[in-house]
Design goal:
Length: 321
Amino acid sequence: MELVIGIDIGGTKTKVGLVNKDGHCLESAFFRTREYPDLDVYLDKIVETINVLKSKFPEQLNILGCGIGAPNASSKHGTIVNASNLIWKGTVPILEKFGQKLPVPMRIMNDASAAALGEMLFGNAKGMKDFIAITLGTGFGAGIVANGKLVEGYDGFAGELGHIDMTIGDGRLTGLGVRGGLEAYVSATGLKRTILFMMSKYMDDSIFRGIAYNDLHGEDITKAAEEGDPIALKAFDFTADILGLALANFTAFSQPEAFVLTGGLVNSGKWIFEPLNKYFNHYLLEVYKGKVKILRSGLAPKTTAICGAAALIWENYQLEH
């Protein structure tokens, strides 16, 4: 059986899976990224996880390669550079080091760009030539496809839209120190920060007044919105307003057919999507109205990022065969 290893290196979790040619993740596992501050020990943990996954198959596997999605990854140099949400700082030569431990063909790319490839090969962007994949996880990532090609940029770092200065309200800093930057508001982490902001701004009773920041999770905010918590509802509306403006601005520079959204914040469902559609259409230039869709990822929610990473290898394999 021919399979590809897909690895998603996230600020919170590292997800590893084995993906077939149809984009189905047959086996997967995860561990917490921050528990492995030593890069060599971290890479050994990935290899160990891969071996456990392979052992679940009775037949011989033909591993075609390994695709890796990571924040601030350069597809051209095989490095991760100054990723705000990762514990390793500076320039991390991850492909060089990992290739010594796992001798298979490898590619690495910004996690959101990998997600875009996954959507184009296996998901809701099949057949589209112009779209932008947005990942709303610990941070905010974007993968841009124009004229059927992924926009990688001169140095492989195109699409860092999460650090665009939106000059918003209280001027929060992103992980890279951009004041008023998008990901400080529109991400799973940004939503938590907005809950605190809303509690300081309004006097409404809320379940969150008795919950410490570190004990607060995205699912709690969604559940509170479902129960009519006014602070949760205000936080989602505030977040959707900012994202709607950002997507309207992004539409102006590449006119995508669709935005495909994935990541933890997307699991909030209608609480984010209903106000988002309202604000997006409000901010959109007249010439684009009615032409741009906002879609959820077409990949399985728990393995979206893994399948996106695996698409880096499957894309080349399909081109060669």
